[in-house]
Specification:
alpha/beta, ten-stranded mixed β-sheet, 10 strands, globular
């Protein structure tokens, strides 16, 4: 008999067997082979690229395009938020997770934060899923979801259930001796366990190079200091429009446009890189929960003109 590590249960082994919906209960009299295919449709189908909208964006490379909705891809990605306190990082994170909740995308996850348990910034998560930065707990969690992905691959069930990890100002987990080799390797292969990673930092220079380079969505909010703005321009400014290639023009553009919870969103795609001015929907604290509710959450945002 094959033995399963006990810690797999704590990170979502229960999702290996999909739950039976009401429609499946109605077809309970169907043939056995047909029921089996319907019950396993979640884990056998390939990971599809679906979208949900959150906020509004305006293209910098194609200024003639009108204001449009920002689509959140439902696939494992790394998000990098950088900006000072009260700049809009948490507002954007709450809006993005509301889109994920509207389609019931994430099945389990964990968050590391120093202040979220008291400030209520991550109120859409159960309290038991929010932890103080703990390297040992993080290593156990990463090991668990990697073994879960290995178990799914061995059983030929397809990708494991979508999950996430939130790092909210967790420089202690990413710098010095506390940054484990397991975490550094995980920054490059987070897609294999079907995990989306969300990095939130107040200063650009305080973030690890690996999490900056391996992120697909970079949201740059108000950042004080010329060195930090210059570092972001030198690293993410390769495909900027010609009018923003010079640092002084870029700095002037940031000062006049990146404010009031707006940010410069860079899509780190080698084929079609894109720069957008992004303003997220305003989601009131406590208006939704990521788990426990099957009700669809529809966006109530109005069109907001971005200068």
């Amino acid at each position: 008999m094959e033995l399963i590590p006990s810690f797999l249960i704590t990170v979502g082994l229960a999702y290996a067997t999909p739950s039976v919906s009401k429609d499946e209960q109605i077809e309970d009299e169907a043939p056995r082979s047909r029921r089996r295919r319907k019950r396993s449709v979640y884990i056998e189908r390939p990971l599809e690229y679906t979208e949900a909208s959150s906020g509004h964006v305006r293209s910098l490379l194609h200024p003639h395009q009108r204001l449009k909705r920002f689509h959140v891809p439902l696939c494992p990605e790394s998000w990098f938020f950088v900006g000072v306190t009260k700049s809009g990082k948490t507002v954007a994170l709450r809006s993005i997770f509301k889109c994920y909740a509207s389609v019931s995308y994430f099945k389990h996850g964990i968050a590391f934060s120093m202040t979220a348990q008291t400030s209520g910034d991550l109120d859409f998560l159960p309290t038991k899923h929010i932890h103080f930065p703990d390297p040992e707990l993080l290593d156990r969690h990463i090991t668990g979801i990697r073994y879960l992905a290995y178990y799914y691959a061995k059983k030929k069930w397809g990708p494991p259930p979508p999950n996430f990890i939130i790092f909210d100002d967790c420089q202690s987990l990413l710098g010095g001796r506390s940054s484990s080799e397991l975490l550094l390797n995980f920054m490059g292969n987070f897609r294999w366990p079907n995990c989306s990673v969300f990095w939130l930092f107040q200063r650009y220079t305080g973030a690890a190079t690996m999490c900056r380079d391996n992120s697909q969505k970079i949201l740059m909010y108000q950042t004080p200091g010329r060195p930090a703005i210059q570092a972001m321009h030198s690293e993410y400014g390769l495909y900027l429009p010609e009018s923003l290639q010079k640092f002084d023009d870029y700095k002037r553009f940031i000062a006049h446009n990146v404010l009031d919870h707006k940010c410069l969103l860079y899509i780190n795609d080698t084929v079609h890189p894109e720069y957008w001015l992004y303003k997220s929907d305003k989601v009131d604290p406590g208006s939704f929960k990521l788990y426990g509710s099957k009700r669809k959450h529809r966006s109530t945002a109005s069109i907001v003109e971005i200068d």
